[in-house]
C-alpha cells in the first residue's frame, strides 16, 4: 500500500503520456530508493536482521511452524495495544494505564462468564463496554478538563488496577468455558482438509496476497491518472512478489502447524481497519494535525477536544480487545494480569518510528516495532537466556532504535 | 587599509545539493554599525552562523580575520571568547528565571566557596541593565517582560560577556515603534562606546537611519558594499541591490470596485481571557466584496484579538456584539462555524499557529478544508494531491513536490502555503494578520499580487499590519485601533502615515 515516495528526479510526467507508458514512470535506482525510504525501510531491515539472527542462533528453531504459531499467540495482545498506543502517541499523548485496563476488562469478563455463568459473548460485550467507559473517562479528563494524559493515565493505572482487585476479590478466576478459550487459543483448520497441512490457511493467505496486490495496483493506477510519480513497473512487480512470497511462506508455516489462529484474523482485521483509519479518514488526519501543531489544528477548525476524546475512547476499546484475548489465552483472570503491557506497547510504537513529540508514526510501523520485540523475546526464550538479561537486551534495543531514528531525522535535516 | 575589526574572505559554504554561500566577503570597520541586507535565502543567517562558529571551522572554505589575525572557531563558546556575540531573532531566554539569572547563565558570578554570590549577581545585573536603559528589578522573572525588554536583557547578557562585536538578527521584527526606536538608540550608544554592531534587518528604513555601511547579499553572493554615511543611499537603492532590479511599483496596482457588503461587526466587545479588562471595546467594522480594508494599531491595541475573536471566538471571553455575513446575522461560536460561514484567518505567527511544520505541503493545504475532500469521513487522497499541486502552481510555491516538509521552506513559501490552505476553504472574507512579516521583498510582492487577484475575484480582504506603508499601498480603507477602540476609518486617498499615527495614538488610556 505504501507507494514509494518520489525522488527529486522523478517529476510528474506531462499529461499526454498514455497510461501504458506511464506505468514506467519513476525511478528504479536502488540507492535513491533506499535513501528516500531509509526511515520507513530501516525498521523493516531491522526486523529482517533480527529474524535472521535468531534463526541462526537457534538453528532455525525460531522459524519452525510451531514457534511461528507461538509468536502469534503470545504477542497478539501487545500488537493490539500498540495499534491504539501509536494513535495516542501521534496525537501527542501517552497512555500508561493500558495494562491495568487489560486486567480490568479481563476480570469483568471472567466475573460475568465464570462466576455468573453467562454465555461467552456476554463476557466479551461486558469487557468492551468497560473498555469504552474507561476510555471515555480518560478522554473526559484529557480533552475537556485539560489534564495532561501522562497524569490522567498514571492515575488510571492505579485506579483500574485497584478496581481489578475489587472485582476479583483479590483471587484468580478460571477456567473459562471452551468457546471463550477459543478466541485466543483456537484455530480455523480442517475446514477444507489437506494432506498434512491446512488448505484453508493457505487459501486465506492467497486471498490476502491477491487483495493486497489488487489494492496496490489500483492505488498505482490512480496515482498515474493524477500524474503522481510512482515506482517503476519492474520494481512494483518485485515488491508485490516479495510481499506475496513472505505472506505465503508465513501461511505455509502456519498450515503445517495447527492452522490459522483466530487471533491472527482479529489482528489482521484491526491492522487493516486502523491502517486505513489513520491515513485515509478525516479523523486520522486530524490526529496527525493535532500532534503536529495543536494551535494550528485548532485554528484550522479541528475540534481538538472531540478528537482527543475519541482517541482515548478508541484506546479503551482496543485495551478491552487485548483484555479479552489475554484472558482467553491465559484461560482466566488474575489480579496481576497485564502488568507492564503499557511499556511494551509504548516501546513498539517508538521502535516503529513514532515521535515523542507527536505528529509522526504509523500503525504498520508500530506493528513491525512490536514484532521486533516479540521475535527478540521469543528467540531469547528459545535460547534459554536468563530473564534478567532479556530485559537488558530489550531496553538497549529500544534505546538504539530511537537513537537511530533521531540520527536519521537529524541527517535528513527535518525540523528545526 | 582602514581598520577592520572583522574580515571574512571568500567564504563558501555548501549543503548537500546547494551552495548557500559562494565567495562571500564581508569587511566590518571597527566601531561602526554594519547592516547586512538580502532577501530570505540570500545567505545572511548562514554567514552569521559561520562567523559565530555554529558551523565550525573546516565545514566551509575561506578565512575569517579578527583584528587582522586568522581565527578558527570550533563552536559558539570559541567565538564568544573572542568577544563575538550573536542575538537571534528567536530570543534564547529562560522564561521562569530572573533577569539576573538569565544574564549570567553559563557565566555565573561565584563567591569563594564556589556557590553563586547572589548579591554580586544582582548588583552586576543592575549595572548592566542601567547601561542598556532598562529600568527593571534584576530579580524579576523574564516571562513578565515584554519582547522589547527581553531584547534589552539579551543585550545586557551580551555586554556581560565583554562583547566587542555584537550581531543582532532581525532585532526589531517583533517590536513596536517605540521599542524599536529605543533599541536603535541603544545601538548608537553602544557604537559610541566602541562596540561594533552588525544588524540584519528587513526594515530598510531602520537601516538607512542607523547603519554606517551596508553589505548586500543576493543568492549566496556579495553584491555590493554601500557607504551609508553620506545619506545618499536610499531604501530603493538597497532594494535594487537585493533583488537585482528596480521594483518600479512596490505595491501592484489595482482598481477598486467594491461590491456588496460581505462582513460587518457591530458593537463587538471582547474581554481578556484571564484579566479583567476589555481588549476590544465596542468595535464597528465592515468590509465589502472586492475591497481591501486595513486595520492599523500599535502593539497591544487589540488588532489580533479583534480578528481572532471574530474568527470563531478563538480568543477572549464574554464576547458580545453582532456579526453579519452578507447582511444576515450569523453565529460563529467555533472556528469550524466561522470557516463554514466563509471567514478565514491567517495568523501573524505562521510557525506557531498557522502550519504543521513537520508535515508536508499537501496535508497543510488541505487541513482547514479537509471535509471538502472527504465523503463519509474518507479522504480522497489523489484529489487532495491535485488540489495541493494546483496551489503549488498558482501560488508559485518553490518546492520540489507537494510532499516536501513545510518546515524546510522559506518564510515566503510558508506564507503561500498558509494562503493556499485558507483559499481552499473558499472563504468570502480573508483576514490576513501581518501577511508579510519576516518574508523577503520578492515574496512580499508576490503575496500582494495574490491578494489583488483575490480581490479582483470578488473576495473581501482585511489586512492587519504594523507597517503603515504596506497598509497605505494595499488598502482601500484603513481602520485605526487604539486600546481596543476603533478611533477612525480613513479612505486611502486621504490617509498619510502621520494621520494614521495620530489616530493610532489617540485615547491612549486603556479601555475600561
- What count of helical segments of chain A does DSSP give? 17
Number of strands of chain B: 22
Task: Indicate the proportion of strand residues of chain A.
Answer: under 5%
Predict the CATH topology of the domain at 58-189 and 258-412 in chain A: ABC transporter involved in vitamin B12 uptake, BtuC
Ends of chain A: how far apart? 30 Å
- Helical residues, percent of chain B: 25-40%
Assign an overall shape of chain A.
globular
* Estimated helix fraction of chain A: over 70%
CATH class of the domain at 58-189 and 258-412 in chain A: Mainly Alpha
**Mean pLDDT over the residues of chain B:** 87
Query: Strands across the major sheet of chain B, in which order?
Result: 6-7-8-3-9-10
CATH architecture of the domain at 58-189 and 258-412 in chain A: Orthogonal Bundle
Count of extended strands of chain A: 2
Biggest interface found: A-B, 38 and 42 residues
Low-confidence stretches of chain A: 1-28
Tally of discrete structural domains of chain B: 2
Along the chain, the helix and strand elements of chain A come as: HHHHHHHHEHHEHHHHHHH
- Kindly provide the radius of gyration of chain A, computed on alpha-carbon positions and rounded to a whole number of angstroms: 22 Å
Write the layout of secondary structure elements.
The complex is a heterodimer of chains A (416) and B (512).
Chain A: H1 19-22, H2 30-36, H3 38-57, H4 65-90, H5 98-115, H6 120-145, H7 149-168, H8 178-185, E1 187-188, H9 199-225, H10 233-256, E2 260-261, H11 262-280, H12 282-292, H13 294-298, H14 304-329, H15 341-351, H16 363-382, H17 387-412
Antiparallel strand pairs in A: 1-2
Chain B: E1 4-15, E2 18-29, E3 33-37, H1 44-52, E4 61-66, E5 69-71, H2 76-81, E6 84-87, H3 99-103, H4 118-132, H5 147-160, E7 165-169, H6 177-192, E8 196-200, H7 204-210, E9 213-218, E10 221-227, H8 235-243, E11 261-271, E12 278-288, E13 292-297, H9 303-310, E14 317-325, E15 328-330, H10 335-340, E16 343-346, H11 350-354, H12 361-366, E17 374-375, E18 378-379, H13 381-395, H14 411-424, E19 429-433, H15 441-456, E20 460-464, H16 468-474, E21 477-482, E22 485-491, H17 497-504
Parallel strand pairs in B: 3-8, 3-9, 6-7, 7-8, 13-20, 13-21, 16-19, 19-20
Antiparallel strand pairs in B: 1-2, 1-4, 4-5, 9-10, 11-12, 11-14, 14-15, 17-18, 21-22
Helix pairs in contact in B: 4-5, 13-14
Main location (chain B): membrane
Subcellular location (chain B): Cell membrane
Domain ABC transporter (chain B): 6-244, 263-508
Amino acid at each position: 500500500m505504501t507507494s514509494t515516495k518520489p525522488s527529486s528526479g522523478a517529476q510528474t510526467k506531462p499529461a499526454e503520456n498514455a497510461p501504458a507508458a506511464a506505468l514506467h514512470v519513476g525511478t528504479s535506482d536502488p540507492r535513491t530508493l533506499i535513501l528516500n525510504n531509509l526511515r520507513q525501510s530501516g525498521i523493516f531491515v531491522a526486523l529482517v536482521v533480527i529474524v535472521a539472527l535468531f534463526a541462526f542462533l537457534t538453528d532455525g528453531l525460531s522459524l519452525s511452524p510451531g514457534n511461528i504459531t507461538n509468536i502469534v499467540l503470545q504477542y497478539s495482545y501487545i500488537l493490539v495495544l500498540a495499534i491504539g498506543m501509536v494513535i495516542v502517541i501521534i496525537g501527542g499523548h501517552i497512555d500508561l494505564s493500558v495494562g491495568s485496563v487489560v486486567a480490568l476488562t479481563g476480570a469483568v469478563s471472567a466475573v460475568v462468564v465464570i462466576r455468573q455463568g453467562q454465555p461467552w459473548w456476554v463476557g466479551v460485550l461486558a469487557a468492551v463496554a468497560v473498555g469504552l467507559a474507561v476510555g471515555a473517562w480518560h478522554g473526559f479528563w484529557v480533552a475537556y478538563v485539560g489534564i495532561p494524559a501522562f497524569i490522567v493515565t498514571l492515575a488510571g493505572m492505579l485506579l483500574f488496577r485497584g478496581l481489578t482487585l475489587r472485582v476479583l476479590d483479590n483471587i484468580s478466576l478460571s477456567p473459562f468455558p471452551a468457546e471463550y478459550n477459543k478466541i485466543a487459543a483456537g484455530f480455523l483448520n480442517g475446514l477444507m482438509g489437506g494432506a498434512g497441512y491446512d488448505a484453508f490457511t493457505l487459501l486465506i493467505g492467497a486471498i490476502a496476497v491477491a487483495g493486497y496486490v489488487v489494492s496496490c495496483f489500483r492505488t498505482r493506477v490512480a496515482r498515474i491518472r493524477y500524474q503522481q510519480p510512482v515506482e517503476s513497473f519492474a520494481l512494483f512487480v518485485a515488491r508485490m512478489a516479495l510481499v506475496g512470497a513472505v505472506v505465503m511462506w508465513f501461511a505455509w508455516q502456519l498450515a503445517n502447524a495447527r492452522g490459522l489462529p483466530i487471533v491472527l484474523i482479529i489482528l489482521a482485521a484491526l491492522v487493516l481497519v486502523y491502517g486505513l483509519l489513520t491515513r485515509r479518514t478525516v479523523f486520522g488526519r486530524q490526529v496527525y494535525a493535532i500532534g503536529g501543531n495543536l494551535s494550528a489544528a485548532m485554528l484550522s477548525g479541528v475540534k481538538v477536544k472531540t478528537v482527543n476524546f475519541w482517541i482515548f475512547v478508541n484506546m479503551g476499546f482496543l485495551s478491552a480487545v487485548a483484555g479479552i484475548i489475554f484472558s482467553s489465552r491465559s484461560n482466566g483472570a488474575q489480579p496481576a494480569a497485564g502488568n507492564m503491557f503499557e511499556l511494551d506497547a509504548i516501546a513498539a510504537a517508538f521502535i516503529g518510528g513514532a515521535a515523542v513529540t507527536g505528529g509522526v508514526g504509523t500503525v504498520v510501523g508500530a506493528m513491525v516495532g512490536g514484532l521486533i520485540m516479540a521475535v527478540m523475546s521469543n528467540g531469547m526464550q528459545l535460547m534459554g537466556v536468563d530473564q534478567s538479561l532479556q530485559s537488558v537486551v530489550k531496553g538497549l534495543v529500544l534505546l538504539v532504535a530511537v537513537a537511530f531514528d533521531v540520527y536519521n531525522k537529524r541527517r535528513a535535516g527535518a525540523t528545526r | 587599509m582602514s581598520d577592520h575589526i572583522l574580515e571574512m574572505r571568500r567564504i563558501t559554504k555548501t549543503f548537500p545539493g546547494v551552495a548557500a554561500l559562494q565567495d562571500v566577503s564581508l569587511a566590518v570597520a571597527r566601531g561602526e554599525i554594519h547592516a547586512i541586507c538580502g532577501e530570505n535565502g540570500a545567505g545572511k543567517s548562514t554567514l552569521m552562523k559561520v562567523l559565530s562558529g555554529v558551523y565550525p571551522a573546516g565545514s566551509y572554505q575561506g578565512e575569517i580575520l579578527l583584528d587582522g589575525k586568522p581565527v578558527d572557531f570550533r563552536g559558539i563558546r570559541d567565538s564568544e571568547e573572542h568577544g563575538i556575540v550573536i542575538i537571534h531573532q528567536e530570543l534564547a531566554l529562560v522564561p521562569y528565571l530572573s533577569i539576573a539569572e538569565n544574564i549570567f547563565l553559563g557565566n555565573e558570578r561565584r563567591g569563594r566557596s564556589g556557590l553563586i554570590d547572589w548579591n554580586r549577581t544582582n548588583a552586576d545585573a543592575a549595572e548592566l541593565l542601567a547601561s542598556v536603559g532598562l529600568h527593571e528589578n534584576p530579580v524579576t522573572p523574564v516571562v513578565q517582560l515584554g519582547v522589547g525588554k527581553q531584547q534589552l536583557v539579551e543585550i545586557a547578557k551580551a555586554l556581560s560577556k565583554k562583547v566587542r562585536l555584537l550581531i543582532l538578527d532581525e532585532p526589531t521584527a517583533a517590536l513596536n515603534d517605540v521599542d524599536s526606536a529605543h533599541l536603535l538608540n541603544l545601538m548608537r550608544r553602544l557604537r559610541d562606546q566602541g562596540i561594533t554592531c552588525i544588524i540584519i534587518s528587513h526594515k530598510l528604513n531602520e537601516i538607512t537611519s542607523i547603519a554606517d555601511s551596508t553589505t548586500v547579499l543576493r543568492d549566496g553572493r556579495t553584491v555590493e558594499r554601500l557607504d551609508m554615511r553620506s545619506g545618499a543611499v536610499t531604501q530603493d537603492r538597497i532594494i535594487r541591490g537585493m533583488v537585482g532590479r528596480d521594483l518600479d511599483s512596490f505595491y501592484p496596482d489595482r482598481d477598486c470596485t467594491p461590491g456588496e457588503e460581505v462582513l460587518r461587526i457591530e458593537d463587538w466587545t471582547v474581554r481578556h481571557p484571564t484579566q479583567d479588562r476589555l481588549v476590544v471595546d465596542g468595535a464597528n467594522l465592515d468590509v465589502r466584496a472586492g475591497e481591501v480594508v486595513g486595520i492599523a494599531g500599535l502593539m497591544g491595541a487589540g488588532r489580533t484579538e479583534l480578528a481572532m475573536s471574530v474568527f470563531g471566538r478563538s480568543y477572549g471571553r464574554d464576547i458580545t456584539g453582532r456579526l453579519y455575513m452578507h447582511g444576515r446575522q450569523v453565529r460563529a461560536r467555533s472556528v469550524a462555524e466561522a470557516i463554514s460561514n466563509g471567514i478565514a484567518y491567517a495568523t501573524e505567527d505562521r510557525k506557531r499557529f498557522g502550519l504543521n511544520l513537520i508535515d508536508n505541503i499537501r496535508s497543510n493545504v488541505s487541513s482547514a478544508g479537509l471535509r471538502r475532500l472527504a465523503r463519509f469521513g474518507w479522504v480522497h487522497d489523489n484529489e487532495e494531491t491535485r488540489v495541493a499541486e494546483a496551489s503549488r502552481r498558482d501560488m508559485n510555491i518553490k518546492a520540489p513536490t507537494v510532499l516536501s516538509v513545510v518546515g524546510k521552506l522559506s518564510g515566503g513559501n510558508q506564507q503561500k502555503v498558509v494562503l493556499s490552505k485558507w483559499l481552499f476553504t473558499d472563504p468570502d472574507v480573508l483576514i490576513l494578520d501581518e501577511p508579510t512579516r519576516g518574508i523577503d521583498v520578492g515574496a512580499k510582492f508576490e503575496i500582494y499580487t495574490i491578494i489583488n487577484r483575490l480581490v479582483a475575484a470578488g473576495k473581501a480582504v482585511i489586512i492587519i499590519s504594523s507597517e503603515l506603508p504596506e497598509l497605505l499601498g494595499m488598502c482601500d480603507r484603513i481602520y485605526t485601533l487604539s486600546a481596543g477602540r476603533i478611533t477612525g476609518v480613513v479612505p486611502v486617498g486621504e490617509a498619510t502615515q502621520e494621520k494614521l499615527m495620530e489616530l493610532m495614538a489617540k485615547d491612549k488610556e486603556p479601555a475600561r
